[in-house]
Design goal:
- By secondary structure, the chain is mainly alpha-helical.
- The chain has one domain (15-124).
- The chain is built from seven helices and two strands.
- It has helices at 18-23, 25-31, 35-60, 63-74, 77-85, 88-106, 111-119, and strands spanning 9-11, 14-16.
- It has a two-stranded antiparallel ribbon.
- A hairpin with a 2-residue loop joins strand 1 and strand 2.
- Helix 3 (35-60) runs antiparallel to helix 5 (77-85), helix 3 runs parallel beside helix 6 and helix 6 packs antiparallel against helix 7.
- The radius of gyration is 17 Å and the shape is elongated.
Length: 138
């Protein structure tokens, strides 16, 4: 039998993290298991990363540096690759940028309210990041 909402998926001899798998459910539900249905979610997440970085850079640096930062992320081979292949790193990047944005946005207004707002995006982040261990050095 299966497990309800697992935190790790075993497939092809490796363990996959659930962040991108769970995020892909709406795209697959709407468009089926077609190429578009599987790839629409990472594409949207990649676009959200560009928008989130623009908003963060605009808040910290101003309009022109924000445009440059968004442009550099949009043409970054790293970001394009992770959006195309549907790795968890793209989702982790967006969650981290949004967390930092809320931390910067709310900190001057209310430290008591600002920190919980910024931390609300961190709980899903461990499900998108992998922890590497090196058994040969232990």
């Amino acid at each position: 039998m299966g497990q309800l909402l697992p935190l790790a998926f075993k497939a092809f001899g490796e363990v996959k993290l659930p962040g991108m798998i769970y995020a892909s459910i709406p795209g697959i539900a709407l468009f089926g298991t077609t190429d578009f249905g599987v790839r629409v979610t990472p594409a949207i997440i990649g676009l959200l990363g560009i928008v989130a970085l623009y908003a963060l850079a605009k808040k910290l640096l101003g309009e022109k540096p924000a445009l440059v930062a968004a442009l550099l992320l949009a043409v970054s081979p790293w970001a394009v690759h992770f959006s195309r292949v549907s790795f968890e790193a793209g989702l982790a990047m967006v969650l981290t940028i949004v967390s930092v944005y809320y931390l910067v946005e709310q900190k001057p207004k209310s430290p008591i309210f600002g920190y919980p707002c910024s931390l609300r995006y961190w709980p899903p982040t461990p499900t998108t990041l992998s922890v590497f261990s090196f058994p040969y050095f232990s």
